[in-house]
């Protein structure tokens, strides 16, 4: 069946937030949707408003790179939405300027449908603003909204985006594609897209600073604060196709940095074979999503070093053993000690651990202890502020205790906004104290 008559425009929306940094952000789900559509003969185009290497930024000399292909997004300060108007933080629109976006959209008068993705629940406002602009240019075209926010909060999305006449697609992969094509009364055969296709990086014109790939989706662990296992069944990809796929991507986009966005990288049953195979590429690898410290042994550490892994984040979350058990028992202090020793012994000095702050009931001292514990082991921790994610067990628990209202606007759940109003966590001063403590420790260490 030839579907090539249809043309879809994929859009990665703006981020509206008080802070945002490009830690290898790529619209992976959207690039996979593009890949599936192209594979079935549809024409696909992309406007990624968050691409720091967009030709607009290159021409205007606005690229601010830091390390390993990460960097600062271009932004403009914008008015705060009403619900957070009293929060004493500036609100910004990150990404391509509005005029430039409008100019680009006008090149796509012929498209049959526009697909917009979403990530964080508390970023829905930026998605809304993006679609508002699309509607100015294309009042009648079908617009489809999918992605993580929609999958976590389908009712909120349907209600909120109704006024813009948006079709909300709840589901991932083939399920999402089927809903999209049902609208056009078209059928396609389902394929095992994760095993057989790559994210469609060829949609980017010119060079990009890094690529993000994944060797598995989902996660078999069920941590109480995490939504991953509730969205995806755990699936892994064969080593053969991971390697073949990476070869293909690197031929099209010869980048220096390859980032794995797995939530459970070390659960892959053939992880040693995978690491061995990855070492043949001349790139730097990164694991920013936190790997399971329990699963790091001497051999894995050696293979990480051999394959040229740089940024390796260990999920540590909290040094409080009671809390470790309560939140899912993924890691204990001993696990961390052992994992760090193996990794540092192999010279993997950019190993780091995530510590959660502002968990319900958590004390400042617990976080400080966790920071000290990491420094004593010879690694620099990253402090992550807790965000209650709708529909996770932890979120439901907070609602049943009356610590959160079920209809709280997701904008208020943003981790940088939460401390200003939520009375069951730390306040903004306490969080600032923790951050200052971490900064001082880093300075002592010369980081």
Automatic annotation (TrEMBL):
Source organism: Marinitoga aeolica
Cofactor(s) needed for function: [4Fe-4S] cluster
Name assigned to this protein: Radical SAM protein
All residue ranges annotated as the B12-binding domain in the record: 12-191
Domain Radical SAM core: 205-424
SMART domains, alphabetized: Elp3 (SM00729)
Top-level division of the source organism's lineage: Bacteria
Keywords: Iron, Iron-sulfur, Metal-binding, S-adenosyl-L-methionine
CDD domains listed in its UniProt record: Radical_SAM
Any Pfam family the entry gives: Radical_SAM
């Amino acid at each position: 069946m030839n579907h090539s008559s249809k043309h879809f425009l994929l859009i990665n929306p703006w981020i509206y937030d008080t802070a945002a940094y490009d830690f290898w952000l790529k619209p992976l789900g959207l690039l996979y949707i593009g890949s599936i559509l192209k594979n079935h003969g549809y024409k696909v185009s992309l406007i990624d408003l968050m691409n720091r290497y967009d030709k607009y930024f290159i021409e205007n000399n606005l690229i601010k790179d830091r390390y390993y292909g990460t960097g600062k997004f271009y932004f403009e300060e914008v008015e705060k939405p009403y619900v957070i108007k009293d929060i004493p933080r500036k609100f910004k629109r990150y990404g391509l300027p509005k005029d430039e976006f409008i100019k680009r959209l006008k090149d796509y008068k012929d498209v049959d449908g526009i697909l917009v993705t979403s990530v964080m629940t508390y970023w829905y406002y930026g998605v809304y603003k993006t679609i508002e602009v699309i509607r100015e240019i294309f009042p009648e075209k079908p617009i489809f909204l999918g992605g993580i926010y929609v999958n976590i909060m389908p009712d909120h999305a349907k209600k909120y985006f109704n006024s813009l006449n948006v079709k909300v697609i709840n589901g991932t992969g083939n399920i999402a594609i089927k809903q999209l094509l049902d609208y056009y009364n078209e059928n396609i055969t389902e394929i095992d897209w994760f095993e057989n296709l790559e994210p469609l990086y060829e949609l980017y014109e010119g060079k990009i600073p890094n690529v993000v790939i994944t060797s598995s989706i989902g996660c078999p662990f069920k941590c109480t604060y995490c939504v991953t296992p509730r969205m995806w069944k755990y699936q892994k990809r064969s080593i053969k196709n991971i390697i073949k796929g990476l070869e293909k991507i690197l031929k099209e986009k010869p980048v220096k940095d390859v980032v794995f966005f797995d939530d459970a990288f070390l659960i892959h049953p053939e992880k040693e074979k995978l690491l061995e195979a990855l070492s043949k590429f001349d790139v730097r690898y990164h694991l920013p999503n936190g790997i399971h410290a329990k699963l790091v042994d001497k051999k894995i550490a050696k293979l990480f070093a051999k394959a040229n892994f740089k940024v390796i984040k260990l999920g540590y979350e909290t040094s409080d053993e009671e809390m470790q058990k309560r939140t899912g028992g993924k890691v204990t202090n001993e696990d961390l000690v052992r994992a760090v020793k193996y990794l540092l012994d192999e010279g993997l000095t950019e190993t780091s651990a995530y510590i959660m702050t502002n968990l319900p009931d958590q004390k400042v001292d617990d976080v400080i202890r966790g920071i000290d514990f990491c420094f004593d082991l010879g690694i620099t921790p990253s402090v992550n502020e807790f965000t209650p994610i709708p529909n996770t067990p932890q979120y439901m628990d907070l609602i049943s205790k009356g610590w959160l209202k079920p209809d709280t606007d997701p904008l208020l759940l943003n981790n940088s906004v939460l401390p200003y109003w939520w009375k069951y966590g730390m306040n903004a001063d306490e969080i600032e104290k923790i951050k200052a403590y971490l900064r001082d420790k880093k300075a002592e260490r010369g980081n």
